[in-house]
Design goal:
single chain; 208 residues; alpha+beta; Alpha-Beta Plaits; two-stranded antiparallel ribbon; 5 helices; 8 strands; 37% helix; disordered N terminus
Length: 208
């Protein structure tokens, strides 16, 4: 480890420091089994070097290592598995909304019917119906901006092909409004049959 065994003039103090760092490394990054083996190796080397130089290696520089069975699972692996289990448990519980007092609150789910099919509703988007055919995206933004921060507004339009190019022409009388938060949807639903755009009362429902 430090020079050849049996040769005088070896820096025993330097070897002792190297040996201590070696044991510290094994204790920090490997299992207790490997730490015990490192300590045994260092003590054996230092004993031989101490006999050569007339110096007895002090065991106080090396912290005692708890003996464990050779077939014991590595401590590092156990720590990693415990950490992964804790992370999974935290992720499964942190996403659940809670009421005051720490009790879990079940998140309500909404659905919309499209013909005879039932679809889960989009959490932040509403569907506008009975929209005036001349209403633009700007008109819809002006009507719903008070409900919350908007992400996207799109008036649905008919698709036609002109010179082999797809173009969107007249409005279908419907639009999609997406909010940043779910609270915007709840506020927008209050506008159902309650407000008009360009003098025409609109319908508001959840979108899939």
């Amino acid at each position: 480890m430090c020079g050849k065994e049996g040769i005088k003039g070896v820096d025993v103090d330097g070897c002792r420091r190297i040996g201590k760092r070696y044991v510290d490394f094994e204790e920090e990054f490997n299992s207790l089994v490997w730490a015990l083996r490192a300590r045994t190796l260092v003590e054996g080397k230092m004993k031989k070097l101490g006999d050569v130089d007339g110096v007895k290696e002090s065991s106080q520089d090396l912290a005692p290592v708890e003996a464990v069975p050779v077939d014991a699972p590595p401590e590092k692996k156990r720590k990693r598995e415990d950490g992964e289990a804790a992370a999974v448990a935290a992720a499964s519980t942190s996403d659940e909304p809670k009421e005051e007092g720490g009790k879990e609150k079940k998140k309500s789910k909404h659905f919309v019917m499209v013909g005879n099919l039932k679809w889960p509703a989009h959490p932040t988007t509403v569907h506008i119906l009975n929209l005036h055919l001349e209403a633009s995206e700007a008109d819809v933004v002006e009507a719903f901006k008070k409900c919350g921060e908007l992400v996207k507004v799109r008036v649905l339009r008919e698709k036609e092909f002109v010179n082999n190019k797809k173009v969107f022409t007249k409005s279908k009388g419907r639009a999609l409004v997406q909010f940043l938060a779910e609270e915007g949807v709840e506020a927008a639903l209050e506008f159902d049959d309650a407000i008009g755009i360009k003098g025409q009362v609109i319908k508001v429902e959840r979108s899939r």
